[in-house]
Amino acid sequence: MTTRTTTPPALHVRDVTVRFAGLTALDDVSFTVAPGTLHAVIGPNGAGKSTCFNVLSGLYRPARGSVRLGDEELTRLAPHRIAALGVARTFQNIVTTQGTVADNLMLGRHVLSRSGFAASALRLPRALREQREHLAAARGIAELTGLGEHFETPVALLSYGDRKRVELARALCLEPRVLLLDEPVAGMNAAERARTAEVVRDIRAELGLSVVLVEHDMGLVMRLADEVTVLDFGKAIAHGTPDEVRGDPEVLRAYLGTETTGEDAA
Ligand SMILES: Nc1ncnc2c1ncn2[C@@H]1O[C@H](COP(=O)(O)OP(=O)(O)OP(=O)(O)O)[C@@H](O)[C@H]1O
Ligand SMILES: [Mg+2]
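Above: inputs. Below: predicted complex with adenosine-5'-triphosphate.
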């Protein structure tokens, strides 16, 4: 499998503010994802976590603030440009139902294709070779994400846990340097959660990328994260190691003050 072997640059989020008609969804939020680390972004429902991912992936433009990957300014780039620079994401509520696992992963590879559509349609040798390489890479990613034995299986026939992991595998097919995972285990049972946690660990060990993880499953966050940023009503109220944030009085207040803590927003 072809992978980027260099350590990813740091992802700098600085003073990001997002407003929706009267509501400040993100209020001057700053944090840094150190190279090659797993950085969790947690907080109660509506805290602004998915909004933050929408800014990082270029779907929303912040009213102010900036996002940089190393020296590259991502703030005003279109989503496909950000993806091409190596930032890939999964969506909180998308679980694919169409095609086989291979079909879905090849869609993820599409962005990396060098031969144009015409060359592929005409079945030119270079396009065919490229196609074979992409298929091999997709197969490698399927293996890495625990979907190897289901490569040719229609996703509609997979268990929920496997189907949700197809979304993760599809994002990985972009060969990201930074992978944004928005609630990757929401709706999964305990065994599927454990399997997915293992996959996230394997991905990091194998590919050396940075991961930004949004998750309500605190056990998973505490086990996987190097660092945690806690959002509450759009503000970053705490940063630190899992142990540091767990004991932070502000964090306890934010969580105890909400009735939906721990629920899955699947
Ligand atoms: N496109 C939008 N238009 C208007 N308001 C929005 C939009 N997107 C998000 N919001 C609001 O911004 C706030 C933050 O939402 P966001 O989806 O980022 O929360 P979240 O932390 O991901 O929550 P959850 O844990 O439930 O997924 C919420 O009050 C939400 O209703
Ligand atoms: Mg969300």
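The domain at 1-86+176-266 is CATH 3.40.50.300 (Rossmann fold).
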